[in-house]
Amino acid sequence: MKKNIAVVAGGYSSERQVSLWTAENIMNALDKSLYNPYLVLIDKDRWYLQAGHTEHDINKNNFSVSLSDYILKFDYAFIAIHGTPAEDGLLQGYFDILGIPYSASGVMESSLSFNKFAYNHFIKSFDVVNIAKSVLVLENTAYNVDEIIETTGLPCFVKPNQQGSSFGIAKVTRKDDLSPAITKAFEQDNAVIIEEFITGTEVTNGVIKLNGEVKALPITEVVSKNDLFDFQAKYDPDFADEITPARISDELTKQIQETTEKIYKISGFKGIVRIDYIIRDNDIYMLEANTIPGMTSNSFIPKQLAYEGKEMSDILSQLIG
């Protein structure tokens, strides 16, 4: 019997549109001989199943849908929400209560990795990869620009502590621009992280656990034509070159893939994850972990799978089981 799969998309953050693109790609890739995929959209005030131009409200008590002649229940949730309420672990807690299996990392692992500052300190304690110097600033809390710059230097990066797709991020080169950049980042989050700027080669590495084995994918090199790898560069191919495999040595490739697998295991991750790095003088710095990476047609993970000759539909089937 086919499994009913809820492809859960939407969410409350600036990444909603990316989530819809990811969901569309997942819906198309799922093997229809094995699964009945349904698009479930989550907004702050409403959860609903969308089928063409028809919408059906979700019963949040048991994550079911009342259709004309039967109650639709789901066997599995493929979470395609970037940002809250999924990348921070909230939705996973809901599914845990209901006993519905899902595609992403669990509550604790997701919430920790979504907090960039806390997660960086967590990973740093294991001494498996370099971490950039950083300072955390909380909204409505006084901060000292000179003390921040003393730690991070200039230029530095300012970004929301819990956000993705480079929303609210800024590269600051002058002291006078730091406070305005922090204020801008507060539009996305109530905590802002200021990091030292590291010049080097930016790469990203997908990793997946299938049948109990953690396996890093090929590495992609990212060459942004903008001053930073922002939303435009991530989702418009005219603004960034993405090169798979990355133009780095075999030795460095192996080192990064092994580091990715270590980080995945240390963090207790599940499903498909992507780790972003920057390489400076052969030293590897972790930038962040993405527990629900983009899976759009223009995203890194599908391209890395394709380079290995793997079909997305096969990987999703193994993931769901």
From TrEMBL:
Mg(2+) 1 binds at residues 276, 288. InterPro entries: ATP-grasp (IPR011761), ATP_grasp_subdomain_1 (IPR013815), D_ala_D_ala (IPR005905), Dala_Dala_lig_C (IPR011095), Dala_Dala_lig_N (IPR011127), PreATP-grasp_dom_sf (IPR016185). Coiled coil: none annotated. It catalyses: 2 D-alanine + ATP = D-alanyl-D-alanine + ADP + phosphate + H(+). Cell wall formation. One of its GO terms (cellular component) is cytoplasm. HAMAP family: Dala_Dala_lig (MF_00047). GO terms for biological process: cell wall organization; peptidoglycan biosynthetic process; regulation of cell shape. Residues 120-321 form the ATP-grasp domain. Mg(2+) 2 binds at residues 288, 290. GO terms for molecular function: ATP binding; D-alanine-D-alanine ligase activity; metal ion binding. This is D-alanine--D-alanine ligase. Binds 2 magnesium or manganese ions per subunit. PANTHER family: D-ALANINE--D-ALANINE LIGASE, D-ALANINE--D-ALANINE LIGASE B. It comes from the Bacteria. Keywords: ATP-binding, Cell shape, Cell wall biogenesis/degradation, Cytoplasm, Ligase, Magnesium, Manganese, Metal-binding, Nucleotide-binding, Peptidoglycan synthesis. Its main location: cytoplasm. The active site is at residues 15, 165, 299.
